[in-house]
């Protein structure tokens, strides 16, 4: 897909080129999410809720079921550009969040944040495993037992760090003790989730148990060495 077109009056369709299509997608997302945020304002919901609902409306669950709309506005060839822009925006937002966070204050919440993170991930993880035991019989092809159990546990116990940061920033709680505690616990939760996700990938992509053992060894090494660098 080329970046820019020669213009509509030259016979080019703007939707066939990356830059005009990306601008249209961004405008559509912004207008829809801002409209939803305005409508949800009486309910005192954070803006991220409107953005999640907007994603559902534009996704495959609703408008995306219309193939004409999906192929015209969100064709597969444009998703790479849109995903790149989304990641750049996420990195920029987390950079702004980092500017407001005091690392010394985060370190003081270490033990309490660790306890909260363990409590926050344990129960959903166990419930996820229990759910996967029930649902496992509904899948017949391509599903391995241990990998499916761990994946379902991770999927139901993970904390979306950027979403939490967005909510705390909007409520102006990032610099307060409760905000620091929540961010610290979410960071620990995120690290644990990525470790478990790596274990899931190792279990599903390899027939040898040594791969899973290697993942656990490298994780243990990282956890033992990383705190010494701070």
From TrEMBL:
Which keywords describe this protein according to UniProt? Ion transport, Membrane, Potassium, Potassium transport, Transmembrane, Transmembrane helix, Transport
Record's keyword annotation contains Transmembrane helix: yes
Q: What is the species listed in this Swiss-Prot or TrEMBL entry? A: Dendrobium nobile
Described by its record, this protein's role is as follows: May function as sodium-coupled metabolite transporter across the chloroplast envelope.
Lineage, opening ranks: Eukaryota, Viridiplantae, Streptophyta, Embryophyta, Tracheophyta
Localization of this protein? Membrane; Plastid, Chloroplast envelope
Task: Give the UniProt entry's GO cellular component terms.
Answer: chloroplast envelope; endomembrane system; membrane
**Superkingdom of the organism of origin:** Eukaryota
Q: What is the name of this protein? A: Cation/H+ exchanger transmembrane domain-containing protein
Pfam families, alphabetized: Na_H_Exchanger (PF00999)
Enumerate the transmembrane spans.
17-36, 48-64, 84-101, 113-135, 147-169, 181-203, 209-226
Task: Give an example GO biological process.
Answer: potassium ion transport
